[in-house]
Amino acid sequence: MAITIDHSGRTALVTGSGAGIGAEIARWLARAGATVAVHDVRDAQAAATVRSIVDEGGRAFALIADARDDEQLVAMIDDAVRRFGGRLDMLVNNIGMYGDERPGPFLSLTGAHWRNLVDQNLVITALASEAAARHMIGTGGGVIVNVSSGETTRPSPNMAAYGAAKAAINHLTQTMAVELGPHGIRVVAIAPGTTMTETVRDAFDDEHYRALVAATPLQRETTADELARLTVFLTSDLARCITGQLILADAGAHLSRSRPANR
Question: Does any domain span residue 261?
């Protein structure tokens, strides 16, 4: 007897899915049969993800908006629901940005640094979830997946603001699960380990990246492909009793000793 996950007839919006983890999540949801709205602030990247999905026989369309602008964010979600025909089954809050900020010691962080990191991670996730949940309530429920970070499970030297903002998403996930559960909405968070994305490539040199990977019990990085497959499972009926949980997908990195991030 084969067990398959079939998202046929379901709709999904993945924020920040023009590249990296978000793009892979969008592709895998489409492979499972969902129609996917690919969001990004960059036209070319969003188009590339859509094209890769369509080339595989999937269904997707691009939505361009700056999620840091509250009005654009809400309008983008409303537009996705309209184009889906009035229904949104899955939202993946993949956006988690360092923006123009750089990792640095706690004593060097400015108010602007803190506000930028909280806004670009926690606030965007909260507002996107609120807008999506309003639509889901009207159609019988749905699933919201928040992409958190392995940095929330241990001290994060030189990444205090980022780690704190992501840790707040973990708490938000639990609170949303309690408040939205009666409406048929499940809310879960996934915490990736070290994954080679554009952001990671820019933040860490090769030597530091290898040290992070070597510190994990499994002696390996987490791949975007693995995180995408996990998301397909968590949004499926196979996981219908899971809500309010933080799922670690970090090769055991939360068991390793913390290493300071590059400045």
Answer: no
How far from the centroid of its chain's Cα atoms is residue 236's Cα?
16
Predicted confidence (pLDDT) per residue in 25-55, tens digit? 999 999 999 999 999 999 999 999 999 999 9
Residue 115: CATH number of its domain: 3.40.50.720
Residue 76, pLDDT above cutoff 60? yes
Residue 67 and residue 15: Cα distance in Å, rounded? 8
What are 165-188's pLDDT values in tens digits? 999 999 999 999 999 999 999 999
Q: Using CA atoms, how far apart are residues 60 and 220, in angstroms rounded to an integer?
A: 32
Entry field: residues in the chain:
263
Check if the beta carbon of residue 17 is closer than 8 Å to that of residue 240: no
Look up residue 242 and give its two tokens: 């899971």
Residue 263 lies in a domain: no
Q: What's this model's pTM, rounded to 2 decimal places?
A: 0.91
- Asked whether residue 75 is assigned to any structural domain, the reply reads yes
What three-state secondary structure class fits 214? Answer: helix
Q: How many CB atoms lie within 10 A of CB 100?
A: 9
In sequence order, what are the residues at sequence separation of 6 or more whose Cβ sits closer than 8 angstroms to the Cβ of residue 244? 173, 174, 177, 178, 181, 187, 188
State the total domains in the chain.
Answer: 1
The one-letter amino acid code at 132 reads A
Catalytic annotation, residues = 162
* Nearest residue to 141 via CA among 110, 84, 183: 183
